[in-house]
Give the backbone structure.
Amino acid sequence: MSGLFITFEGIEGCGKSTQVERLAKRLAKEGHETLTLREPGGTPIGEAIRDVVKFPPGHNTISPDTELLLMNASRAQLVQQAIRPALANGAIVLCDRFYDSSLAYQGHGRGLDLAKVQKAIDLAIDGIKPNLTLLLDIPLSVSQARVSDRLQSTDEIQDQFDESGTKFFERVLDGFHILAKAEPARFRIINGDKSVDNVTEEIWSSVQSHL
C-alpha cells in the first residue's frame, strides 16, 4: 500500500464535508492524485445503505446492532471497491468518516460493547487503517446551532441521528475525545469552532508532514 489515507471525524456540523472538499482541491493543485469518499456511502451499494440507515423505511427504529452491521457493510464495500485500489495506485484518499465513527456513535453513543464494535470493524476494514485522522472538534452547543441553521436554510430533513438527543451526542463527543487520546500519533485535533479559513490552514499544516 503506497498511498496516503486521511480520515475526517467529528460530530454533526463540525465542518468535515467543507474541509474535505477544500483539502482535495489543494492537493490536486499541488499535483497529487486524490480520491474523496464518505461514510456511510461512497459506492452505489454504500449509498443505498446510507439511505436505509439515515432514513429507515416506514420510520422504523433501527436497533443499535443493526445500525452497527449496516455501517460496516457499507464500509466493507468501500474498502474493497474504492479505498484499497486507490491506495495501491498511490493516491491520497480522503474519507468523510471511517471506523472511528462506529466506535464513537455505535459504541459510546448507542452503548454497544466496544469489543463487539471493534470485531465488526476489523471484518470490514480488512487491515486498512488511516495514516492520519483529523478530528474537527466543536462544542455540542455549536453543533446543535449549526445543524439547526442547516435544516432551516435547506430542504434537508432530520435523519435518525439528528433525532437521537443531546445525551447521545454528549456520549459521542466524549467517545471521540477518548479515541484521540488513545492514539495521539494518528489523531490531530483541530478546533472546528474557528473560521473556515483558519481551520483549512490548520488542516493543511497537519497534512503537509505526511506528504
